[in-house]
Amino acid sequence: MHAKELLEVERREIRALHYTWIAFFLTFYVWFNMAPLATSMLQTESYLTPDHIKLFLIANVALTIPGRVIVGMALDRFGPRRVFSILMVVMAIPTWFFAFGDSAMQLFVSRLFMSIVGAGFVVGIHMTALWFKPKDIGFAEGFYAGWGNFGSAAAAITIPTVALQFFGGNDGWRWAIALSGLLMALYGVAYWFLITDGPEVGTHKKSRKAGALEVSTWKDLWLYCLFIVPLYGVLGLLVYRTQAMGFLSATGAIIAYSVIVLMVIYQIYKAISVNVPMLKAGIPEDDKYPFKSVAALNVSYFANFGAELAVVSMLPMFFAATWKLDPTAAGLIASTFAFVNLWARPLGGYISDKVGNRRLVMLIYMFGIGIGFALMGMLNAEWPLFIAVVFTILCSVFVQGAEGATFGIIPSIKRRLTGQISGMAGAYGNVGAVFYLFIYTFVEPNQFFYIIAVGALIAWVVCYFWLAEPEDAFGDEYKMSSVDRQIAAENKY
Hints:
With 493 residues, the chain is mostly helical. The chain has helices at 12-31, 38-44, 50-62, 64-78, 80-90, 92-99, 104-114, 120-131, 137-167, 172-194, 218-233, 235-244, 250-281, 291-323, 327-339, 341-355, 358-376, 385-413, 418-440, 445-466, 482-490.
């Protein structure tokens, strides 16, 4: 697949791709509508402090973690059209609550629920996989994710202008955020009628079991259970920070920690209850897949997308504070990190399609991320702003390319489990964001960039040893096992 084909809108799959990246774009526009307005919020709302903003940034990615896992399961059961439409409409509600909240607690709670909108990413990944063949999936997923991800850059560029120039006044930031939620809700209604789940009625493949990811061996089951723990355990960091800032009492914190522990136990129970009967019965050889590849992609997405979410959240403030810029200029310059999405993420997917070795492409990109963030760690006010922008763009090229390469691999691991695998890997991106933003509350920006660089290099090591090249990753059709054919036959009746 080539870039010029994106203009062939008479083709149904091309129209589906455009409809879907626009949906993703709007969810990211809403998701990151606070970061460029943080300075304005602090200036107009006397009850807010910089520590509040840091807490809101953690809350902004927290519930995306369970949200992406749950959405991934819903995808394999109900299909992406319904899930995406409902998500966009429902998530407009906490957006409006945030826009017109009049206390730090109201802003915190509404921002926490708003974070679920970030689950929209995995919905479009699944939808795109239903419309495109394995040989083209890298570029298609990369284009979808790159142009959709640009929503965060668009927010950084336009939200301050809408708030300060169009609406103006102390409440300008509120109306700008409210408008973003309205646009998303309207498109959510339109998306329901614009698209179908793949080119044919039977394109969407359901998994055998709901509630947990299917695995192929006993060893994979234990590894799966191990990887469940951070998905929910990382929320303990949010509880810790919330209590430390007085938003949660000691009793409330104990209750929250207990709920997190129960969530982990329940998800492990579901993983065991779903998989043990199948493992005892025996998994057909042609239906097996290596879960360690899923684990490797979880870690890599922790390091690349987690880094992006964290950096996009703090970069406007970093440029404003370091080079003494006004909010509009700082947001515009910071947007260069996400602006690269428009071409770097599709390029990562395209290279993954063309090189003929998706694993090798992933390793190159992950190594580049480590180098890129190490360069950003060297930046301070003594560096020319132009060089800072160059380093930011260079680093972003590798971050976005690695993300594109990640989802160039996922649809080929296990076709009928694409939703759940995408959901888990996507959730690990948010685990990374929560972890990194938690660390950010204790360190200076330069130290923060170095920490992210180390995380990327650790992920490179994990991918080197665990990530396997998927079967039929460049074919005309996805691999269909005997179980896949059996499920397809059952769904006909």
